[in-house]
Design goal:
Elements: E1 2-3, H1 9-29, H2 36-61, E2 63-66, E3 71-75, E4 77-84, E5 92-94, E6 98-99, H3 100-114, E7 119-125, E8 129-136, H4 139-147, H5 166-179, E9 184-191, E10 213-218, E11 225-226, E12 250-251, E13 254-255, E14 257-258, H6 262-272, E15 275-278, E16 293-297, E17 306-308, H7 310-339, E18 349-350, E19 353-354, E20 375-376, E21 379-380, E22 397-398, E23 404-406, E24 409-410
Parallel strand pairs: 4-7, 4-9, 9-10, 10-15
Antiparallel strand pairs: 1-2, 2-17, 3-16, 5-6, 7-8, 11-14, 12-13, 18-19, 20-21, 22-23, 23-24
Helix pairs in contact: 1-2, 2-7, 3-4
Length: 411
Amino acid sequence: MIFQPVLNVFLLLLFVLPVAAIAVLALVKGPSTAGSGTQKTHRALWALRLVMLLACFVMLLRPGIPGGATQTLATDTDIVLVVDTTASIVAEDWDGDKPRLDGVRADIQAIVEEYPGARFALITFDASADLRLPLTTDTTALISSLEVLRPEVTSQSRGSSIGIANRMLQNTLSAAAESSPERSRMVFYFGDGEQTVTSPPESFKGSEKYTDAGAVLGYGTAEGGPMQLTTGSLDGPSTGSGTQHKEYIEYLGEDALSVIDEKNLETLAGQLGVEYQHRKADAAPTLPEAPSTTTSYAESGTVGNVTELYWIAAVIVVALLGFELARAAMLVARLRQLRAPDRVAAPHTRNGVAEPVEAPHTRNRVAGPVEARHTRNRVAEPVEAPHTTGPSTSSGTRTSSGTQFSDGGAS
């Protein structure tokens, strides 16, 4: 098993250890006033939180299982690319009517793929030579440089020599040989061989002793191709309405044609001690083998396809977080129930008037309400006198209705 941490391990420990110490302290100490059941629940919760913290730490370590050792081919070679950027490099006779520069880009891409691990340098030339990219293994930077590569501005062109980059090439190769004498060196020249100055081309003979292999690649046709005007911008010239159109270099009222000069290119290849190839779009370039290559085997478990295992720890973290969120939601709901006020039922109403509330039933009433006397025609009925026993204290007779009469009249 291998680990590929997202951060330095010491930084991860700096973040995790303080939190782990707090969790362990809470797990061991626990609430002192709670019962045994509450203490067990408290410790169980903190144990789960400690597990979640450890799972996060393992996830950030990114554990994995290596897919085995991988055989890696590395080219221990320095390669210098010399590219013609005069106006003729955009002559439209590559693969029909495409600019020659498209063929140059495609061939350089094939060279990059053919020699993995090599260091590349890029030299361009028109009226002068420029080192666009020093020796580097960053092939992405090389391809990016080629994508933005544009020929010289037509209005500033004063003619060019196909050998003007000889001194720049020699200096680059000699510096590479001095700094890394164990590495081999290769040169690839890309151009059409058209000499547009009256002086003869400069010789590349001084670079031959530093060159172990390479090739001179020629672009163009014997019939020639028209050359579009270049302004130095990424976009071509446009009309006043904004639509793009092409304008070509003219000579005596007609489109000027650029024709390949293979004789000059063959001479240049002889000076460098490499082969010449006339390039066409329907065939891939024939590239020589690298003078020196090394085949290294990486240690088992350090390279190759790795089966990631961090997702297992991530699943544990998500599950424990879900448990904590569910528990928090339950506690909030319970707290709201405890804080909710008791609601009193409103009295029933009939026709907008509240009905009286029925009194609760009582058991063993002490005294019921006194019945009102019955009345007839709103006149109280006579109340029966209580019966008496023994002799009467006054003379007289008692009627059946209970009215007592004395000798002197009714009383």
